[in-house]
Amino acid sequence: MPDNSEHKLCPCGSTSNFDACCGRFLSGADHPKTAEQLMRSRYCAFVTRNGAYLKDTLAAEKQAGFDVDTIADDKTNWIGLEIIDRKAGGILDQTGQVEFIARFSENGHEHQLHERSNFERRAGKWVYVDGVFPEADSITSPTPTSRVGRNDPCPCGSGKKFKKCCG
């Protein structure tokens, strides 16, 4: 069967094919040059269940608590990514922030994750440091009785994702 990956659009929402866009970062052939490129490639790593890339692009002090296997076993269906805003994070910057909305479905319900992610350039490479949820109601669901998903903000108000807090 022929490989059609060169014709597949990148899940990050660009109009480029996956291999020319985020695929080159996930394969290790290149490194993101901006915070936004790293954010987009990390989204693609969630889509493709590439836990190793997510761990490699996570700040060193956060890696110990990261379980690569949970990414491989994750059943979340990532639907789309929308970049809302960027602050710094360019090729000459050492820090950056990217605000985004990632849409996903889980357990038959559609949700959105609205996060403001913080990035730093360390040893010449961008890493994800942490993220905050800019709005208390950043997760929406069509039914008010929906359960909290593992990628939703924790209802305890910690600002962490449910899977990393009370989940």
Secondary-structure element string = HHHHHEEEE
Q: Which residues form runs of ≥5 with pLDDT under 50?
A: 1-5, 136-146
Number of continuous helical runs: 5
In total, how many beta strands?
4
The termini sit apart by 41 Å
Apparent shape: globular
Question: What Rg is obtained from the alpha carbons, in whole angstroms?
Answer: 16 Å
The overall pLDDT, averaged over residues, is 86
Strand content: 25-35%
Spatial strand order of the main sheet: 1-2-3-4
Share of residues in helices: 10-25%
Describe this structure in words.
The longest helix has 14 residues, at 35-48. The radius of gyration is 16 Å and the shape is globular. Strand 1 (77-88) and strand 2 form a beta hairpin. The protein has 167 residues and is of the alpha+beta class. It is built from five helices and four strands. A four-stranded antiparallel sheet has the order 1-2-3-4, covered by helices on one side.
List keywords for this structure.
167 residues, 5 helices, four-stranded antiparallel beta sheet, alpha+beta
Describe what is shown at a glance.
With 167 residues, the chain is α+β, with helices and mostly antiparallel strands. The protein has five helices and four strands, in the order H-H-H-H-H-E-E-E-E. The N terminus is likely disordered.
